[in-house]
Amino acid sequence: MKGYVFVGNTTKPSPETAESREPLSPSNVSRPCLTAALALGYEVFWGVNRNRPEELSCDLPVKMYDSHTYRSLFAFSDNRIAFRNLGRVLKENEIEVIHCNTPVGGLVGRLCGRRYRTKTVIYTVHGFHFYKGAPLLNRTVFKWAEQLLARWTDVIITMNREDYAAAKKMRLRKGGKVFKVHGVGITLADYVDKEFDREAKRRELGLKPADIACICAGDLVARKNYGTAIEAIALANDPRLHYFICGEGPELGNLQQMAGQLGVGERVHFLGFRTDIQELLRAADIFLFSSLQEGLPRSLMEAMAVGLPAVVSRIRGNVDLIRDGEGGLLCDARDAKAFAKALRKLSADAVLREKMAKVNRRRIRRYDSSVVEKEILSIYKEVLHLPET
Predict the structure, then answer these.
(1) What is the Cα 188 distance to its own chain's centre?
(2) Which element (helix H / strand E) includes 83?
(3) pLDDT band per the 50, 70, 90 thresholds, residue 303
(4) Which of 23, 80, 127, 260 is the most buried (most CB within 10 A)?
C-alpha cells in the first residue's frame, strides 16, 4: 500500500504533555491534508510530538510516529532526532509522499525526502521568513535556504499573495508547481450565533456600557509588536478605550511596565491563556492587531468570523484578509499615531463598526475549513498522478 507522511512542528511539549495518553485529534493545519490522503487511498503516517504515539488513539485512521519537530531551527539536537525518526518511517514503509509544513518541518521533511529519494515532496509555507521589511538575516540567509530547499520540492503551497509571488520565482524540481490556498481554514460552524449574554461577559471584564473594548490574541513575543497598540491606546486619549490581550510570553513584564508608564495600565488588560476566546471576541468591539510578521493570522480570521471590525498592521496576511476601509483599517505596523487615529474613528462610529462587521462575516466564508479541504484534495489529485480506478 502506498504511503504518505505529514510532518509539521509545534512548541516543544512539557514532559507531562509528551507523556500524556489522551487521544489525539488533528487540527485544521493537518486535518485537510490527512483526510485528502486517506480519501486517495494512502496509508497515512502523521508526525506528532508525543512519546510512544503508536500507543495513542486518533479520530482518523492514521498511524502516528514521534516526529520530534519543534519550532526552533537552531535546536540542532532535536532536529537530528526529527531527521532520524522520519528517516526510520521512510525506510520501513513504502512512502511515496511527504507533506511537510513550517520552517522546521519543511527542513526535516525535504532533507529526508532528498536522502531517501521520496517520489513527491510537498511543502506548505505558513509564512516565509524573508517577508517585506524583514531583518537582513531573514532576507539573505533564510531566503537562500528556502531557495535551495525548493530544488528538492515538487509542490509549494502558500497562503497569501506575497508568499505565492515569492514561491513562483523559485526553482523547484522538474515539473514542480506552486499553489495558493485559503490558509489552514477555520470551522465557521463553530462561530455561528449561539445563545450568549454579551452584556454579562462585558460586566465580567469590568466594562461599562459606553466602553469600547479592543481585543487581540497571541503569544507575547516581540514580533507581535503589542507595544505599538498599547501606545495607540494612550495616544487615542479616550478613557472609554480598553485593550484586552489574550496570551502568554516573555514580553509580559515589559508590556505591563510600558502600559503603566503611558498611564493606561488600568485600561490595558493582560488576560493570559484563555479557553473562552470566542466569548471574549463576541464581547469586544474592535480587533486591534499591530503584528510585524504573519502568514495568514488565525486570530484575525476568528475575529472576522464573529463579526469584529479590525484595526491591523499593513503586512502580509493581514492585507489578504482586510481591505482598507471595508472590513477595517490598515496602518503601518510601527505607526502608533495612525493606529490611534483609526481607533478614534471606529470608536466614535457604531454604524461604521457594524458595516465593517458585516463585510468581515461575508468575506471570511471563503476561508472555511470545508473550502480548504476541497482545495487540498484538488491539489493532491493534480500533482500525485494517481492511476484511474
Answers:
(1) 16
(2) helix 76-92
(3) very high
(4) 127
